[in-house]
Amino acid sequence: MNSSSRLIEEAVDQVSSLPGVGRKTALRFVLDLLRRKPEEVMRFAESLITLRDNIRYCKTCHNLSDEEECSICKTPRRDNGLLCVVQDIRDVMAIEGTGQFSGRYHVLGGIISPMDGISPSQLNIDSLVERVAGSEVKEVILALSATMEGETTSFYLFKKLSPLNVAVSTIARGVAVGGELEYTDEVTLGRSILLRTPYESSLKR
Fold first, then answer.
1. Rg of the chain over CA atoms, in angstroms?
2. CA-CA distance, 164 to 102, in Å (whole number)?
């Protein structure tokens, strides 16, 4: 893309570095910002800076939060006996959108992927085991994507949690094999949570 402005080129370079944003789309965003009032653009920029400077990880579940503990963990009406393990905040948002889950979450921060150099030690697995061992959790739901990496992670977690006195289940396969949880529609995902099955059963398929 050849622009008459170096500043536009630099802005497009930054915007197009976001996932899923090509240079043509980035140019549209940049030109739209230029059409806005200066105070609108300033609010936009300040919100991103504030986000980056102040966002943190919840001390309990590792979800992204404005405070030391996220709003889900602080809500007393949630079921402490039900713990849903997910890959990241996008999966928390997807499951919350179904309105079918009333328990609590544990965010791994990724999934095991030797090809990408991600090992169990880099994920929030030790804190999961400690949390289950030292609390009133009765069931752990493994709500990970139906990919090879997701299945590998689920099996690893099942082995880690097996010595503890807790039921381990997995979401029903309304979620397509090979599919990412965040892209599953809310109705299908909600049913997958409600129709979850014991993890041992999934190993026999």
1. 20
2. 23
User: Which residue from 148, 156, 174 is spatially nearest to 108, judged by alpha carbons?
Assistant: 156
Residues 157, 81, single domain; the answer is yes
Same domain? For 104 and 28 the reply is no
Cα separation, 6 vs 107, whole angstroms: 41
User: How confident is the model at residue 178, as a pLDDT?
Assistant: 41
Distance CA 136, CA 43 (A): 44
Question: Which residues form the domain of 173?
Answer: 77-203
Number of domains in the chain: 2
For residue range 55-105, what is the model confidence (pLDDT) as tens digits?
A: 999 999 999 999 999 999 999 999 999 999 999 999 999 899 888 899 999
Q: Are residues 26 and 124 in the same domain?
A: no
